[in-house]
Amino acid sequence: MSFTSRGCLSGHLCLTLFLLIVLFIPLRSQETLPSARVTISSRNKTINQVLDEITLQTGYHFTFDASIINGKQKVQFIVTHLQLRHVLDSLLSDPQIDYRTIDKNIIIYRKNESAPTPISSTIDRALIRGRVVDRRSGKALSYATIALLETSLGSITNQQGEFSFKLPMNLPDPMLVISFMGYKSLVYPVTYPVEKELEIRLEKELIPLQEVIIRYTDPVQLLHEAIRRIPENYLDDHSTMTAFYRESVKRNDHCMLYSEAVLNVAKAPYASLTSRDQVSILKRRKIYDVNTEDTVLIKLRSGIPTSLNLDAIKNRPDFLEDDFTDRYNLDFTDMMSYGDHLVYVISFQQKKEIPDLLFRGTLYLEQESLALLAVDFEFNPDLIQKEPGLFLVSSSPNIRIRPMMAKYHVDYRSVNERYYVSQVRAVLEMKIRKRRKWISSRYKIFIEMAITDLIPNQRLRIDRSDRVSRNIVLADEPFQFDPLFWGIHNTIKPEASLMESIQKLDHSSQEIIE
After folding, report:
1. Which of 101, 107, 190, 474 has a Cα-to-Cα distance from 7 of 20 to 30 A?
2. Residues 81 and 151 in one domain
3. For residues 324 and 192, is the Cβ–Cβ distance under 8 A?
């Protein structure tokens, strides 16, 4: 569906769901420590205090788990012009402890003495599960980024902050990098055997008010410059991706349809106006749980192609076109951190004098490159009800549709200083009432796609017969619930309510199509 008077993507598909892009920022580490030399004369000071003194002399900060080092232990420690590794070995006095340097941080960890245990005899991966929360409040951090250090493998947490991650067996001391916008990134060394689910606590990183004031700049100028820099900030060659995709339709609190798939994606260069992304399905399955009460059945068509088209850099919405000032007002909202990056936060709203349905939302621009790291946006909630037919291809004349909201979010990941779409999410809610009925039902449609692996500068050729059709209805594809179904592929852990629906599903409400 295309339209010009409403907020839209340049291209073919209207944004019919909520769009999200997850931001992965891969980090590179060094096995060797810096060659800096240290001189310390410390009497009756804690290990934490000694490490603080080393930080002052070298500029490197230290991260470690309190379970392997007692930072409050007092020591007598005297060294003169000694290399950093020898200093740390002498201070910590544990041959099983090793170090990894990431930017200006040194991760102190205990080397694994035992090998990882594979998930099964047929799946050569170790499984780790956990939950990411705010350090102070304990609140779950939904859609936090989980990446495996020095690889292109990644995933995200679900709405409850939970995740599962499959680790290659050839990494003796793997490290996960957990990131969330506005929080300090955390590098977590994985210790084998993994005996229980992890709870990973992230700490908010506040930007001093003085820095926000000093760095303030005109948001219109920032966005114009960000659009101008798109060709230099995003992948300029073909890439091969693996993605996990899922979609669901709920009627009130009842999950009617749930489908998921692992995809192969042939990603076209961002600068190319003629090359389109292509996708094929590697594995797929579904739940089909429709009761006799469900007299209205909604199926999502073109969910996979739509998720690719929601790449806001490849298929730009009207608020990322050069003439965005004709339709939108911009405000400089905030500055926040993401990993080691400062991020400009810019909000936009459609101008009040424009009667057509447009968007409102928030843009996140990396402070140095002005690359768009993420965008949250939605159709104007004050006007969306004027367009009841915007989101449906066809419907019965006997039903009345009232759109309630359509929200989108997108994140991007960086590889070799070039960004690419990393996650897409979309949520649409509507009320549907049958003619001559007083009570309406609330329907919620959800799609999500996360890139779990990437090979840059490699072109994947997908046969025409294997390409996903623009009219595919994934909910009409087979489903069999099997925890081992996905093999080595990383997926998004189902939320508790959804998992309950899956586990309680009766055989009579499953539809298997061969």
Report:
1. 474
2. no
3. no
